């Protein structure tokens, strides 16, 4: 058991290091290539912070652990809202960008509803994975179109949060190194999670919904807290919303193309919590210009209650 936990923790450390390297390198590289901040934030950074979920989900699918794979995505989306947005708001009340409310939050809720519908038969097939990816491509195309209207002040604000500290070559090295760390870390992380689930007699899906989802959400947690401390809590909210969209459309879509997924022990209660969290986020963002600390406390309390329910 000690060796299993060691492998699991080693994978977690590598996932964090790989995610951090990939986020920094990819964001800096995107800005150097002249991409607008909105496109960088909702594409490169969002995809980079979702990379641990992608690697872990793919590894789980290849090992026949579909429940762990689906549980990781559902659990990560719940974790992003309940744990990470909750903590970020407690650090600093979260400002809401009107563009986030008009487009990205409704898309996040729509992606969650679509995933619930696809899992009616407890499977995600290759055709359904293709549908998810097509939805992502449409969303990305519209985002690129809208980004052409971005102002210079948005560019400056984003560069303050993702400064170009290194050369282009070093940025590329960070991206490549981050991917390599994620691949190896993802393998160790999944192996450790499956072994822990087996030794404790807990279904792999439950581990995916809890321990694995928290572990793979560490890049989002670190990025969001740093952004909040620097006074860019609105960017933190955008990163979390974009990450949730990528988790459903990109992570599950690509993984289902590699290997069709069986939802395993992921239940309608888990999907209902994900939908409720997305709907609550949309409600909070539509009713005010920011999310207050007490509302962040409610999100965090709700997440802790959900975790308690999982293991009781």
Task: Compose a concise summary of this entry.
83% of the residues lie in helices and 3% in strands. The chain has helices spanning 2-32, 37-49, 51-62, 66-91, 98-118, 126-147, 152-161, 168-200, 204-216, 218-229, 233-258, 268-287, 293-311, and strands at residues 94-95, 123-124, 261-262, 290-291. Helix 2 (37-49) packs antiparallel against helix 6 (126-147), helix 4 (66-91) packs parallel to helix 12 and helix 4 packs antiparallel against helix 13.
Description:
This protein has 312 residues and is mainly alpha-helical. It has a single domain (2-311), classed as A middle domain of Talin 1. Helix content is 83%, strand content 3%. It has 13 helices and four strands. The chain has helices spanning 2-32, 37-49, 51-62, 66-91, 98-118, 126-147, 152-161, 168-200, 204-216, 218-229, 233-258, 268-287, 293-311; strands at residues 94-95, 123-124, 261-262, 290-291. Strands 1-4 form a two-stranded antiparallel sheet. Strands 2-3 form a two-stranded antiparallel sheet. Helix 3 packs parallel to helix 11, helix 4 (66-91) packs parallel to helix 10 (218-229) and helix 5 (98-118) packs parallel to helix 11. The radius of gyration is 18 Å and the shape is globular. The relative contact order is 0.24. The model has no long low-confidence stretch (mean pLDDT 79).
